[in-house]
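Give me the fold.
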Amino acid sequence: MINQYGRIAVDAATKLQELRAVGFNSEDFETLLRRALTNYKTYEAQNDWLREHLATDEQNIFLFLETKQPLTQAVFYCIAAQLLGFTEVLAANGYNGVATFRQLGLPIVTVNNLHHAWYELLNSHTNNGLLFIDELASQGYFESNNHRLLFNGKSLPTYNTNDLIRESVWVETSVDTDNDGRFDLVQVDIIRPNTNEKLPVLFTASPYYQGLNEKENDAKVHDVNVPLTRKDTHQPAPSNLNQMEEMEETVEKPLARQINGYAEEASVIFTQEAGKPVDLNQYFLSRGYAVVYAAGIGTRHSDGMQDTGSPEQVESMKNVVEWLAGNRVAFTDRTSNIAIVANWSNHNIAMTGRSYLGTLATAVATTGVSGLKTVISEAAISNWYQYYRDNGLVVAPGGFPGEDMDVLAELVYSRIKDPADWLKTKKQWVGFQANTEKLTDRVNGNYDYYWDTHNYLNQVKNIKVDMVMVHGLNDWNVKPRQVYQLWSALRDLPNVKKIYLHQGQHIYINNNRSLDFSDQMNLWLTEKLLDKDVKANEVLPTVTWQDNTTEDAWHVLDEWGASKKSKYYIGSNVLTTHQNSGELNFKDWLPENQFTYYCEHFDKWRDDTITGKLPTNQIFKSETYMSERTVDGEILLNLRVKSSHNIGLISAMVVDYGDDTYLKETPTNQGVVIDRGVNFSPTDLMSFESKKSAYKMITIGHINLQNRTSSRQNDDLLPNRYVDLHFELQPTYYKMRAGHQLGLIVYATDFEMTIRGNQSIAYTIDLSKSSLDIPFTCKK
């Protein structure tokens, strides 16, 4: 199915006006058709194409046109399906174009009004993942005249990407993170069409942009094969508030630079972006948007120290927005103090990006900065504690054991790449990193003042802009809780909120075959940055969810997170609807050779855990479901458990058991390359495909037994004494099919995410006081 949620309804007069603007104003079908054969420059070449394609299952288009037969709906959609590239689907349907369009979910209208039918066809998606009119544009249909042209509420790619202006400026921030008495300067790279029009701006804050220190990063990764240690319960968990306040008191107030004059043009230009461009940004460059990148403080060609996700880092990115909006100074270089203004900007800015990039976009939105109109954040962190810690445990993002705030900072402190700059800053940077490691406290693992300053949920009430959030429900790097908690915090605010939940891992979805995400964002930004009323708030769904059971299926939901939960009691290897009794045990220890193997192959460890091949867990399964049901939100695990030691941790997985086809978590390259303009920034078209399996992990969670009250508090833990745990697993929206079973796995060490002490700790579960609360919604 092609899911086109970005289409808007316009009246007949508007359709005719827009068709004229794009050169499709003829009332003759053959004229319209030949004009759409952009790659065929002569009449004879067009005839060849017409002879090679069918009007009916028995007649080619050339003969149909030559014999002047009436245009029927059947003929129109048979030809239309071939124009859109769905020839194989058409053939499978016996060259029934109407049936083909219906199968694909594309609009079908009467052909009595040819303009109406042709307008809808131009606004339909092709097999190559573009609107038909955009595909024509990528083939050179339009003259690249650097003027905006809207069609169905969206900007067309009419801007020349072969003549882009690329220039750098240095924004003066309001932070001094290297304590040299002057506000830090950050380099800002601008890419924009060469036009006199005032341009809306897409700004991506990317600490990765100026390069990565992979060798230094790898050397700094922490050892996770360390034992779990007991926390002191005689006094409150340590707060680093005093330490941070003492640091702040020693810093003198920095000075702003004196402006020595103004320049009309930048002094520094470049021919290629320093880092990999964001594909969504590339899509908009050809549509008359300026694109801006900044790596921020503590990166190459900028001042300052790098503190992952810190208030200072956020402030520096906010300051870039202020300059783009005309409210802050920037300079043409780092020394002359010659100022420059963004006189090409229309002062309407959107922030875009995935992962760290989307994280900083979210963070800047919480400052309420003027000029920022919307955020499109994908796989973004809203609370850094939940990224590197969880319920009092040091927990790694999936796939990156041993990473932490200081490790990520080391990766992006790209000032290392300039030898003289590194010579000047090395001593300070080493000391700065040592302090970061001390503040993050990998031994304690608790939520404290440091983590509170890196929690953007505290400032959600300051968000004034409309938000678009995208997240993978199988993203175990930036886990789904990050977006769920942001979504929940935004629920009562007046902002317009849109969320896209896909079945992928830590990925972008703007080049997906079955969902018109880029097209939807085109409509969204027309309203937010061009100030055009195109009903984007109403047209775009509130929640768009990718079905986990069917390829190319996306559904519109009203909300995410069910309020009512169904209770399952934990029995002897079963989940039941009645309370049980008894005890079950497992030991969190493996022989050294097994332990070493799974440390290196944690994917294999997870598979062997789910399939019951390891003794280090207990597995509980529900009855086989007779009907479909959906998990909507957070599963709550209630567990009475005891440890044989005065330390302990519990991990849990919820699994879908059933021999079936499951969507792969990584989309498959479709062997098609699509343009982001005319011969500009080609990108691979992707689609989620299925595979056979006997199970699928749905969600996961972890907790330190000494943090059963909260992540701030250390509770006492006595050996062989039961304690009660209540903790949420990562939120999801997951359809359980009939014939499947829901499984709960309770264990301790998670070889991918927790520390791995391989301590001989025995755990006992009291079945009479253990249960699972699941937010089930059942199919009616």
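The radius of gyration is 29 Å.
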